[in-house]
Design a protein that fits this description.
- This protein is α+β, with helices and mostly antiparallel strands and 267 residues long.
- It folds into two domains: 48 residues; 183 residues, Protein Transport Mog1p, Chain A (3-Layer(aba) Sandwich).
- It is 28% helix and 27% strand.
- It contains four helices and 13 strands.
- The strands form two sheets. Strands 3, 4, 5, 6, 7, 8, 9, 10, 11 and 12 form a ten-stranded antiparallel beta sheet that branches. A three-stranded antiparallel beta sheet has the order 1-2-13.
- The longest helix has 47 residues.
Length: 267
């Protein structure tokens, strides 16, 4: 019998292999030791903590920068305002109320309604409840009897200082010669001087309650309100109070205001 070729022998040997391919399984990957997994987890926690701390620092830095910016803006506003009211005056006459008065020449007067006259000051340097310089405005108003006084809400005001009696400069026959002016803090606030009202023959002592009805019965209702301006400046009345009572100790503020009230002529 002829000798088989080398290739044919190799083929036959392969056919006689005893390997069980039906039960063959791939070898498993070697598992990472437990300490290696713990190390990866620890690194992930450290990374999260670092990112969180960085985010907190960034947010805090922005907040601190904003506070500095606001403080600088308030200081800038206060420094640009004046602590003196212009003593040069203009005169205003109202046919609706049958009265007239003098007011600082650089203030703005208007009578857009038959039930109210308003005179608004320019930016003024006033004191807040902590005694710091702030920018504010003074708002002089004449309102018809019975008009809603928003500052009182549903409660009564408190006298911040003892009432003062002022004498009218040129009273008419139908006008009393003198009147009390009363310094009020509205019930929604716990400190500061919010307004000065003409209260006629009624005077009040400091810390005494001032009944809302007493003010509403004055005819007409005449007031001088103090406003703390927002950070953006006194572009309009903010409605936010916060002026300290010590503002009235500044004669450059109080004397022109009293002169305006004393100049009232009621026909």
């Amino acid at each position: 019998m002829a000798e088989e070729s080398s290739e044919e022998k190799d083929y036959q040997e392969a056919g006689r292999s005893t390997a069980d391919y039906a039960e063959y399984q791939k070898p498993e990957k070697p598992r990472n030791p437990i300490w290696k997994k713990l190390g990866i987890g620890l690194l992930a926690l450290i990374l999260i903590a670092v990112l969180g701390a960085g985010g907190y620092w960034f947010a805090k830095q922005r907040k601190d920068d904003k506070k500095v910016e606001q403080s600088s803006q308030i200081t800038q506003n206060a420094s640009s305002a004046t602590d003196q009211i212009n003593t040069e005056t203009k005169h205003f006459d109202s046919a609706n109320f049958k009265l007239g008065f003098d007011y600082p020449g650089d203030w703005t007067a208007s009578e857009d309604s038959p039930t109210e006259i308003s005179v608004l000051s320019k930016d003024l340097k006033l004191k807040d409840v902590d005694g710091k310089d702030v920018t504010g405005q003074i708002y002089f108003r004449v309102r018809a009897k019975g008009q809603k006084i928003s500052g009182f809400g549903s409660g009564n005001a408190v006298a911040v200082l003892d009432s003062e009696k002022i004498a009218y400069a040129n009273p008419t026959e139908v006008q009393r010669a003198s009147t009390f002016i009363t310094f009020l803090r509205y019930p929604e606030n716990d400190a500061g001087l919010d307004a000065v009202y003409i209260t006629g023959d009624q005077g009040y002592q400091a810390d005494q309650d001032v009944m809302k009805a007493d003010i509403e019965n004055v005819d007409p209702i005449i007031s001088v309100e103090f406003y703390l301006c927002p950070n953006s400046g006194c572009k309009e009345i903010s409605g936010v109070y916060g002026i300290g009572a010590q503002t009235w100790d500044n004669d450059n503020i109080s004397m022109p205001v009293k002169a305006m009230l004393e100049s009232l002529v009621i026909n």
